[in-house]
Amino acid sequence: MPMYERGDVRIRYEEVGAGVPLLVTPGGGLNSRVDVWPGQVFNAMEVFKDDFQCITMDQRNAVGGESTGPVQVEDPWGAFADDQLGLMDHLGIGEFLFMGYCIGGPFAMKLVERAPERVLAAVLCQPVGHAEATPDAMYDGGINGWAPGLRERQPDVSMETIEQYLHNLYRVQPDFMYCVSREFASQCQTPLLVMPDDTPAHSYQAAMDLVALAPRAEVTAYPWKEQEDLKARTIEQVRAFLKAHQPATAAR
């Protein structure tokens, strides 16, 4: 796998296909990494490789992945966006499409906030978000499913640092999409397609609030993944949405 390096950050990534660039990030919370694609609700790298230049990556410090960097306590969502935009810069890519699964929902919104002129459109597949009934689902997942592996690999990172990091990710703004405000969403002009889910971490309410707030948001059917025919139609809806928002020159 190729690597991109920027200072003390190393990002492992993979590319497949050709066409308009589509950055896709798999689910898995803080363990979002390339090798989990086969277990996703559908493998975007395979499904869309004939339509787009699909790019994916191990997120910084994902356990089991090869991307590494500081545990950025002060601006954790911004650090992920810096890694993602930095990879696009490394590849010489200006404008691109984005699709994020699970934690990729907040990734999408932070990228749109940071670089609205570069993100042509974004798909949020089963996005995580704050749910009143399970407010600490993502925090607890980080403590139990990410922190032990990180500390094994980086024993110099204290539990105090990890707890503050998770706090800043999921508790500083314990509402909605974690990384942006409702006010930002209400003014967001980037086309969005939301694919809701309803689990303790994948808040249906947060997903639908985004659909209601964002002026250019669309939504798929829900539930969409249990019936194979509906799932197939929903995947085609995603493909059509992405193609509709690629540069006009690419559609010729």
Can you tell me about this structure?
This protein is α/β, with parallel strands linked by helices. Helices cover 36% and strands 17% of the residues. It has 9 helices and 8 strands. It has helices at residues 44-47, 76-90, 104-114, 137-145, 147-153, 159-170, 182-187, 204-213, 228-244; strands spanning 3-6, 9-16, 21-25, 53-57, 96-101, 119-125, 192-195, 217-219. An 8-stranded mixed beta sheet has the order 1-2-4-3-5-6-7-8, sandwiched between helices. Helix 3 (104-114) links the parallel strand 5 (96-101) and strand 6. The model has no long low-confidence stretch (mean pLDDT 96).
Task: Summarize the amount of helix as a percent range.
Answer: 25-40%
Rg to the nearest angstrom? Answer: 17 Å
How would you classify the quaternary structure? single chain
Computed structural class: alpha/beta
Nearest-integer average pLDDT: 96
What general form does the structure show?
globular
Trace the largest sheet across and list its strands. Answer: 1-2-4-3-5-6-7-8
Topology as H/E string? EEEHEHEHEHHHHEHEH
In short:
The protein is of the alpha/beta class. It has helices at 44-47, 76-90, 104-114, 137-145, 147-153, 159-170, 182-187, 204-213, 228-244; strands at 3-6, 9-16, 21-25, 53-57, 96-101, 119-125, 192-195, 217-219. It has an 8-stranded mixed β-sheet, sandwiched between helices.
